[in-house]
Structure formats: structure tokens, C-alpha cells
Design a protein that fits this description.
About 45% of the residues lie in helices and about 15% in strands. The protein contains 19 helices and 17 strands. It is flat. Helix 9 crosses helix 11, helix 14 runs parallel beside helix 19 and helix 15 packs antiparallel against helix 16. By secondary structure, the protein is of the alpha/beta class.
Length: about 550
């Protein structure tokens, strides 16, 4: 069948011996480092048209233009169309400006020039390289051709490395280099490498974090957003006029659990840029592969955060917990992910028992249920009993935190009034003198030894003695400095245990926020006994030790040196 062209109509087998129906191949790619001025589409087209017009044996069949496609592979739409026309014998001549326009992949370029084109009797012409397979066959068979292809390949590899290096430098400088701003942000009007908050989308980000912290599961949040008609991130970008072709936009703009999870785990929302999460395998293979977390480039505090760092850390902690629940439950149980079997360590499962007079919930070991008692025991505990026990436990430690704060303030006040700081300063001066004396003796020992005033054995013994004294007094000086600083500035009033627990004073009902901030894990033993591991344990022990060591300070504020 004849191909209809705006230039002419030709039958596939219609070529005479001296007539060449030419396809003019043109390619441009910024990725290859092509210069817009010298390698533009219009410039290449003008050169090829001029050559064709000056050669009577060549008539123009069609243009094949790949604008924006790399020469490192041959998966280009216009090139593939041209090869299809070659195999269909619609063209028997391919003309390019130079070999680099044809391709920058040494192996693939050689395959077409040495195998495919000769097989189909195609005349290949590279204008600027003076290569013509018909008029000057030796030009195509010359060793110069593969050599030039190697140079073109190497040039592309070199450009690729330089581009990657330049992009990594910009990433480490905290500059955003993505095509589109992430959901919740937009590019600053005066600097496209800087992100500013897009308040419309940021509200949805805050909504997702708030719901998750209040006990909603990831699937429940996705359903809630879909019920409210909120567009997913890619559909939102399309609605704003961006040319975004993300796959999840094909689902009609609906949210899915993976999208919600990505937002909950993205450091971007606390002001940190994490870039280079994916990279292409090589300059010839354009498929991207994920980059390990340790090799990603993270720069902190590059833009205004949408989410508090403390909330992000709470979410991060909760996501590590096993919170599987029934799909019908919108909100997670208060204890989901926190309560575990004390023997097998598995997260316990919530079950509901319905009786004619009452409905109650309880937790049971999943290993017991699945193995039918073979590998673990039931460890059952009623939800209402668990809630009451945990509430009593937490209120006890909240009261301790409040008392600790009061005692710390009294101790600090007594210290400021007392004279202990003066005595410590006096000790510090004394220790400094001892150290200076030991150092001076050390300095004088060697000259005495060289002058024969000391034997070698005496010199070595004295040297060891005063070196040890110098170290010992130095350590004592550092301890005294730390103690003086503590006395002069007071104990840190915002001890983590005190600060976190005291803000929940007077709680009467548990919720996910309280559990997230105060509880690490709850272990249930067979028989119903529980063991609660609270957070800030080290801070609690630290402040407890401080109060124990200084309990006499508040009753003896008049101490003098």
C-alpha cells in the first residue's frame, strides 16, 4: 500500500537503482548536553534540506524528529517510526547532521550501521562527518566511524556524570530540584528551588496527621478523604494546571492507603528536604531504582514546616506498632499496638463478646488463638479492667512529675541561698593549683635527668607519678566545673519526664494522644497481671536521683563554706 505524504506518494518497491527516498532524522536532547544554538531542530533541518536539494539522486520522503529524547538509547518514537519505514522499504536512505544526532550509544549505533541498514540496502549519510554509504563506501566502513561513536558515547557518559554531580551539589545546598513541588507546598515565585506552603493542600496534610494521632487507621483516613470529595495529590496538581501524569490520577482522583502512608512518613512536612530517593541505573538505562536511605541526601530546616516535629515523631512511633483492626472500625482502639503478650511478645488482639445482658471487649494472645493453645496461653484481659489499671498507673506518675517539679524548684532556691557554690569554687582553685604544680615538676624533670641529677629509674618513676597526678586533678577540675554550673544555674526544670507527664494532670479518660506520649508498651501476663513500660524512664530515674542526692538542700539553705 502506498504511503500518503505531503511530499510525494511512493510505492514500497518502486525505487530505481539511482533513486533514494530519504528520511531526514533529527534529534535534540538537553540531557546529552546539546547546545540549543548549534543543535536546534530548525538548524538541523536546514542543513539536511540543503544537502538533499543539492543531490539529484536524493528525494525527500519524510522528516523523523525526536525533540527531547536522549541519544543513549534508541527507544525514541520518531526513530522507531523511521526503522518501521525502512523495514517496509518505504525509504532507502537515512540522512543525519552528524553521528551524535543518530545516537550516542556505541553498541546500538554500530548494530544499525553495520547490520540493519546493509541488510535492507539503506544508504546512510552523515553530512558533517562526510560519511556516505553509497557515494563513498569506505567512509562508512572506516575505523573512524566506530571511533567517533565511542567518543559520542563517552561524551554522553561524561555529561551524565557532571549533571549528576551538579544536581547532588544543589541538593546538598538544600535546593529543591524536582519538576513539581510536593503536595502541601508550591515553588516560591522568585526562586523555583525553594518551597513555600500551599495552604489549601497543607490543610489536608494537617488533617491526615491529626486524624492518625487521634486513632484513625490509614485506610480509614483514605476513606474519609474520599467521602469528603478531596482530590488526591496528583489530581490536585492536574486541577492546578500542572502537566502531572502520575499513575494514581487514573483512579479518578481517589485516595489510597499508600498515598496516606507516604504523607505520614515524609520528613518534608517538618521542614526537611530528603532528595535522591530514586536514580536511573545508568546513562544508557533510564529505568529508575530506589536509593537506600543512608545514600539519600537530607538537608534539615530548608523550608517552613507544616507539621510539628514532635507530632511527626509520634506518628513515626505509632506506625511501627501492629495496629491491625477490623476494616469496619474507623478509629483504632486506645491500646492498639501498645498491648503485647508478656510471653510470646506478639501484639494482642481485641475481641468482642456479646451476651444477652452485656457486651464487653477483651484482649487475647494471637499466638494462643492461631495455635489453639499449643505455643502460648490465652493471657486474656478485659478492656475495662485494663483501662482502669493503666489510668491509675499514669495518674500516679503524673502526680510524681508534679511533685518533682515542686521539689526541684525548692532545691534550686535553697542552692541559690546557700554557700555551697562558694565552697566548690574554692576547691576548684585548689585543684587548678595542684595541676599547675604537677605540670611544672614534669617540665623540670627532663633537664634534671639530662644533667645527671636524676637516674633513669628515678626519672621514669617521677614522670609517671606526676603525669597521673595531672590527669587526676584535670578530671577533678571538670567535675567541679559541672557541679558549679549546676548550682549556679539550677537543675533543668524542663526535665523530659516532668515536662511530658505534668501536662496530663487530672486525666479521667485515656486516648491515643496520652498513650502515644506516656506509654511505651503494656505487657499482659497469664492471669491478668500487667507490666507497664512508660516513656521517659531514663529522665525519671535521673530526676529521682537528683532529688535523692539533694533532699537536704531545701531543709538546710544556710549552708556555708
Amino acid at each position: 500500500m502506498a504511503r500518503k505524504s505531503k511530499y510525494l506518494t511512493v510505492q514500497p518497491e518502486e525505487f530505481s537503482e539511482k533513486e533514494y527516498k530519504a528520511g531526514l532524522y533529527i534529534r535534540l536532547s538537553r540531557e546529552d548536553g546539546d547546545k540549543i544554538e548549534s543543535e536546534s531542530i530548525s538548524s538541523q533541518k536546514a542543513i539536511l534540506e540543503k544537502f538533499a536539494s543539492e543531490n539529484p539522486s536524493v528525494s525527500l520522503y519524510d522528516y523523523y524528529i525526536d525533540d527531547g529524547f536522549s541519544g543513549t538509547d534508541f527507544e525514541r518514537p520518531a526513530f522507531k517510526r523511521m526503522i518501521a519505514d525502512v523495514t517496509a522499504r518505504k525509504i532507502n536512505c537515512v540522512i543525519v547532521k552528524d553521528l551524535s544526532r543518530f545516537g550516542r550509544n556505541y553498541v546500538e549505533a554500530g548494530k544499525y550501521l553495520e547490520t540493519v541498514f546493509p541488510l535492507f540496502g539503506v544508504r546512510f549519510i552523515s553530512v558533517n562527518d562526510n560519511i556516505d554509504g553509497a557515494e563513498n563506501p569506505s567512509s562508512l566502513n572506516s575505523v573512524i566511524v566506530p571511533f567517533k561513536n565511542i567518543i559520542n558515547d563517552e561524551y554522553c557518559r561524561d555529561i551524565s556524570m557532571k549533571v549528576r554531580s551538579a544536581l547532588d551539589i544543589r541538593r546538598r545546598q538544600g535546593k529543591f530540584i524536582g519538576s513539581f513541588a510536593p503536595y502541601g507546598y508550591k515553588k516560591a515565585a522568585n526562586d523555583h528551588n525553594k518551597l513555600v506552603i500551599d495552604e489549601e493542600a497543607a490543610q489536608i496534610v494537617r488533617f491526615i496527621f491529626e486524624k492518625f494521632l487521634h486513632g484513625y487507621g490509614i485506610l480509614s483516613i483514605a476513606r474519609l478523604l474520599n467521602e469528603r470529595g478531596v482530590k488526591n495529590p496528583s489530581a490536585y496538581k492536574v486541577g492546578k494546571g500542572y502537566n502531572c501524569r502520575a499513575a494514581n490520577n487514573m483512579a479518578g482522583g481517589l485516595w489510597c492507603d499508600s498515598t496516606v502512608r507516604r504523607i505520614l512518613t515524609n520528613e518534608l512536612y517538618i521542614g526537611n528536604l530528603v532528595q535522591k530517593k530514586n536514580e536511573v541505573i545508568s546513562y544508557k538505562i533510564h529505568t529508575a531504582k530506589p536509593v537506600s536511605e543512608k545514600n539519600r541526601i537530607t538537608v534539615e530546616n530548608t523550608h517552613e514546616p507544616i507539621i510539628l516535629k514532635s507530632d511527626f515523631e509520634k506518628v513515626k512511633s505509632l506506625l511501627k506498632r501492629d495496629t491491625r483492626t477490623s476494616p469496619n472500625n474507623k478509629e483504632l482502639s486506645v491500646f492498639a499496638g501498645f498491648i503485647k503478650c508478656a510471653d510470646c511478645g506478639r501484639a494482642m488482639q481485641k475481641r468482642t463478646v456479646k451476651q444477652s445482658y452485656k457486651i464487653y471487649d477483651y484482649y487475647v494472645c494471637p499466638t494462643y488463638r492461631k495455635s489453639k493453645g499449643k505455643f502460648c496461653t490465652k493471657h486474656a484481659i478485659r478492656l475495662d479492667a485494663l483501662e482502669q489499671a493503666v489510668l491509675v498507673f499514669l495518674n500516679k506518675y503524673i502526680a510524681v512529675a508534679v511533685d518533682f517539679e515542686r521539689l526541684i524548684e525548692k532545691i534550686n532556691k535553697a542552692r541559690r541561698m546557700g554557700g555551697k557554690s562558694k565552697r566548690l569554687n574554692s576547691e576548684l582553685v585548689s585543684k587548678k593549683r595542684e595541676k599547675e604544680r604537677a605540670q611544672k615538676i614534669l617540665t623540670d624533670l627532663y633537664p634534671d635527668y639530662k644533667n645527671g641529677l636524676l637516674s633513669r629509674e628515678s626519672y621514669l618513676a617521677l614522670k609517671q607519678k606526676y603525669e597521673e597526678e595531672t590527669v587526676r586533678t584535670g578530671e577533678a577540675i571538670e567535675r567541679l566545673k559541672a557541679e558549679i554550673y549546676s548550682f549556679e544555674n539550677g537543675f533543668e526544670a524542663e526535665n523530659e519526664f516532668v515536662a511530658v507527664f505534668k501536662k496530663f494532670k487530672g486525666i479521667k479518660k485515656l486516648n491515643r494522644t496520652i498513650m502515644t506520649e506516656l506509654v511505651d508498651n503494656i505487657f499482659v501476663r497469664e492471669g491478668g497481671d500487667i507490666e507497664i513500660h512508660m516513656k521517659c524512664k531514663d529522665a525519671f530515674l535521673y530526676v529521682e536521683e537528683f532529688i535523692e542526692q539533694n533532699k537536704n538542700e531545701e531543709t538546710n539553705p544556710k549552708e556555708t563554706a
